[in-house]
TrEMBL record, chains A, B:
Its EC number(s): 2.7.4.16
Pathway stated in the Swiss-Prot or TrEMBL entry: Cofactor biosynthesis; thiamine diphosphate biosynthesis; thiamine diphosphate from thiamine phosphate: step 1/1
Designated gene of the protein: thiL
Lineage, opening ranks: Bacteria, Pseudomonadati, Thermodesulfobacteriota, Desulfovibrionia, Desulfovibrionales
Binding site for Mg(2+) 4: 32, 45, 76
Descriptive protein name: Thiamine-monophosphate kinase
Catalytic activity: thiamine phosphate + ATP = thiamine diphosphate + ADP
Record-listed Mg(2+) 3 binding positions: 32, 76, 217
Length: 326, 326
């Protein structure tokens, strides 16, 4: 174990993973604030990634932690149809997190940042009671010039998903039960929880479809997020066919005696994109994003129907009960 | 005690203090990301304000906590000569922080935000082991069109301060020793620690002085921050006359048998602005910011001289030892 001796040593570690040069950053980390060149209209999001609330060191590798802390923010930008431009990082480190641990965290984060050419422009380092990473990320509009938002679907619009649902929840359950050993038996589900895909390209393609009404990322599960996506007063009629669900979702539900569609509907943290599209624009959508799957339609009547039955419960509240404690 | 029951209740509390409308925020809190209209070049900073590292609930009122969490970020923008435009907030709350506590925190934060017309555009709420507030703030250039930075002073330039030094450190010491009772005996020093002034107007005025080379905010004390302010290879000759120091700094040093200038030189968290100005522009500086006080000059020789004696120690390292634990 090599304890991080000083702020300067920590900053040196960060410099090794995140170069301090980028064409759109006239003044990089190291001053009172960074100076950024941005388009005139941006979108911005901030999310915390907190030990024992959002992840456990027992089964996340350091690289997984760094990757996912950034990924959950980039997923919000993807859901806006935005092109990510940069991020800032505030972190706390407890005394048992050493230089090797943080080297791994930064490597996992840099892997994702480098793939998207994102500069880390600044932030703040502190000792604290647990490992916490608060990322603020921002992005500009893509070629379409617009951002996507919630609450725009009209009755008759098709509802669709880009990405799986229910898979990350299986990953969480098996990782909580068996730790890292679960990865071999449930490779896709555990990866969905540890390293969720970031759908930046899909988000940009969605924003370019003229009949696309809006989108969001499904972070807390369809059961919780669908009501947040719908405009007040409208509802949704959803059909999740077990044949569409990932085999690991179906197998896990079977092992628990659960309905796979209901399990998939409730499960959080897949970061699939949920969208609404005017029915006449469906062919455009499927041309632009071939992996999009229609799961139902916006209804004039409020309330949500899943596979023909009204849904009464609600999904997962990140604030009220953390995934790790559930 | 009214425990905060849900994320919705928490968001309602935030809505009561931070209205969701602002001319430069086309899409406010409540979607995956906020949409902001910004000037093409901005500066951005992020800082954590963490219980028992940066503040104690024993002697900070909730309002002080909310105020200072935002103030330390706005001070960074002030030091850049920037005009603040908005902020995002990530927080954690432990189970013993109730709705009344957070109502007070948001009231103190909104007081400062309202005075500067700053929208809170988004963020993230989580349960966590302690009270933590991570603020990301951004600003645009003032009428001068430029931002101020470090490392620009040349030999012969005058070094100056806007604001006191050593005062907040006295406040911290007496609050740690006597708790809130210290406020009556040391009103100015405790206020300097609990509610530091934010020098946005002074920063904008500095940026408008053509001969102004650069500025920073003194958060860790002159002893630590002066070397960060100076370009590599140059030094500084500083004179801190006890007659310039606040009477509470002089009285506290006397009570401890300390040299008041040395105490003032080491003390952190005053958030005074430190700047360098070309000697011929000194009259312009004093016209623009009458409260600026010249404390010395940049020297061609490296090293720092305080009141005729070389300084060998270094100041306070926020990462290595927190103020509350020192």
């Amino acid at each position: 174990m090599s304890r991080i001796a000083s702020e300067a040593a920590f900053l040196g570690l960060i410099d090794r993973h995140f170069p301090r040069r980028h064409g759109a950053v006239p003044l990089h980390r190291g001053d009172d604030a960074a100076v950024l060149d941005l388009p005139g209209r941006i979108c911005l999001t901030a999310d915390l990634f907190l030990e024992d609330a959002h992840f456990r060191r027992a089964y996340f590798t350091p690289g997984d932690i760094g990757y996912k802390a950034l990924a959950v923010n980039l997923s919000d930008l993807a859901a806006m149809g935005a092109s990510p431009l940069g991020f800032a990082l505030v972190l706390t480190t407890p005394s048992d997190a050493d230089a090797d641990f943080w080297d791994g965290v930064f490597a996992g984060m840099a892997e994702l940042a480098d793939a998207l050419d994102l500069p880390l422009v600044g932030g703040d380092l502190n000792r604290g009671p647990s490992v916490a990473l608060a990322v603020t990320a921002w992005g500009g509009p893509g070629p379409s010039g617009r951002f996507l938002r919630r609450g725009q679907g009209r009755p008759g619009d098709a509802l669709f998903l880009v990405g799986e649902v229910g898979l990350a929840a299986v990953g969480l359950a098996v990782l909580e039960a068996s730790g890292r050993d679960a990865v071999a038996a449930w490779p896709v589900a555990t990866t969905a929880h540890l390293r969720p895909a970031v759908r930046v390209e899909a988000g940009l393609a969605l924003a370019a479809v003229p009949g696309l009404r809006g989108a969001m990322d499904v972070s807390d599960g369809l059961a919780a997020d669908l009501p947040r996506f719908l405009a007040p007063g409208v509802g949704a009629d959803i059909r999740l066919d077990p044949s569409w669900l990932h085999p690991e979702v179906v197998a896990h539900a079977a092992s628990r005696g659960l309905d796979p569609a209901e399990a998939a509907f409730s499960g959080g943290e897949d970061y699939a994109l949920l969208g609404a599209v005017a029915p006449e624009a469906l062919p455009d959508l499927l041309r632009a994003v071939p992996s999009a799957r229609v799961i139902g339609a916006v209804t004039a009547a409020p309330g949500i129907i899943l596979n023909g039955r009204p849904v009464t419960g609600r999904g997962f509240d990140h604030f009220e009960s953390s995934p790790c404690s559930s």
